[in-house]
Amino acid sequence: MRSEVREWIEAALDATGEQTEIELVGDMIRDIPARVFSELLGVDAEKHAAFISRISEESVRIFEMDPELAGPSTAAWSELTRWVDELLEIHEPGTPDANVLDHMLAQKAMGKMSDEDIRVSLVTLLAASTDTTQILAGLMFTSFLDNPDQWQRLREDPSLVPSAVTEAARYRPGDAWIFRVATVDKEIAGVPVYAGDHVFALIGAAHRDPAVFTNPEIFDIGRTGERLPLNWGVGRHFCLGRMFAVMELEEMLRATSARWVTIEHSDPAAAREASYLDAGTSVHIRVTPAN
After folding, report:
1. Of 276, 173, 174, 154, which is closest to residue 223 (Cα–Cα)?
2. Model pLDDT for residues 238-258, shown as the tens digit of each residue
3. Which letter, b or e, does each residue of 66-105 get, where b requires 16 or more Cβ atoms within 10 Å of its Cβ?
4. Which of these, 241, 242, 240, 218, lies nearest to 229 by C-alpha position?
5. Rg of the chain over CA atoms, in angstroms?
6. 238 CB burial (10 A radius; 0-12, 13-18, 19+)
7. Is the separation of the CB atoms in 173 and 207 below 8 Å?
8. How do the domains of the chain map onto residue ranges?
9. Which of 27, 131, 200, 242 has a CA positioned 20 to 30 A from the CA of residue 173?
10. What is the pLDDT at residue 259?
11. Do the Cβ atoms of 174 and 231 come closer than 8 Å?
């Protein structure tokens, strides 16, 4: 799907015309992962991409663990589940390799998946589909905005795009922290953890560990030979969508670095005051076009 993603990004950038003041999330970032997942499901992106983007953003807010979000989060999950049920009801099966949904239906025909398996899988995939990529993209551009020398380095050497995406994920991870609920009593680094305790793992801190990364406080898009960032998990819990997210971010960097000589915060003071995850909802920039 790389060629299609490239076309969507170029079209989004073309739509900004001669503007030098751009809101990156609304003008480009939000639409791309939603279109990718529309294609994966075999649904019309023009009809469903906006819904997929919105419902992903609303449903994952449950992980903020804010009691005031209990009602809206529950409503979002209910809306998402109803949409999946309607999709399954009206979908006309195609070839097994046509899209994710047809693949799952083929697995069902072979007795390897049940209706509930498909339902739960689709709801889970859709909840995680776009919000995480959107946040990571916003944070990636924020890292370049704060490190203009690395933007110039990328423009001079586009071959650094893949390592730049990996470094952006390390430097400002979209999932800077995760939580788990302990199921058994355990001791971690001398600290007792009891069954039922909430355990918070700070991925952002792990990514700045000098025992693992050389000069971890520096945003270095040429960084190689060190472990992959923890954003997408490891082992059997490795993120199914990682390759799509990485591909989308690579193409965003290729397209924008070719078009813009410089990028800077439109309002540096507001950028400094913004909370960490605000980059997932808006990134206001001023650009200098290449020509």
Report:
1. 154
2. 888 889 999 999 999 999 999
3. eeeeeeebeebbeebbebbeebeeeeeeeeeeebbbbebb
4. 242
5. 20
6. exposed
7. yes
8. 2-174+242-289
9. 27
10. 96
11. yes
Q: What is the pLDDT of residues 80-89, one digit of tens each?
A: 999 999 988 8
Q: In the chain, how long is the greatest CA-to-CA distance?
A: 62
CB 16 within 8 A of CB 27: yes
d(CA 132, CA 134): 5
Q: What are phi and psi of 181, to 5 degrees?
A: -110, 120
CA angle (243, 2, 18) in 5-degree steps: 115
CATH level 2 (architecture), domain 2-174+242-289: Orthogonal Bundle (1.10)
8-45 exposure pattern, b = at least 16 Cβ within 10 A, e = fewer = bbbebbeebeeeeebbbbebbbbbbbbbbbbbbbbbeb
Question: Which structure tokens are listed for 141?
Answer: 């551009």
The parts of the chain modelled with pLDDT lower than 50 are: none
Q: Quote the pTM value.
A: 0.90
